[in-house]
Fold:
Amino acid sequence: MIPRLLLAAAILAPATVFAQTPSVPDLALDVAVLGGLDKITARVVTIEAPVGTPVRFGALEIVARACRKRRPEENPESAAFLDIWELRPEQPAQSLFRGWMFASSPALSAMEHAVYDVWVLDCRKSR
Structure:
């Protein structure tokens, strides 16, 4: 007969091994795939923003600084660090948003604007 302590150790050992396995780093990809909504025209677009390159959406200039995606064996998640500016003629650019946006939780870190919404859809490699 196996002592209860040894039996408990044998049952819990796999859970302990998995709990101590270091997390695999996320994939750093070079294109942020974003969704954009113009609330005035109800136009929805998909925006591909290469990391470090400014892209325009209406009066907004969006710069993706980083885009990370979890590996396929992990729970799905994509996140992008974005700088979003509003550009108006003959006025200085106004910073609207700077920070991480998450595909699975768009309301967690949302950009507040009367006309535009921007959210993260995915991260991918450039073609």
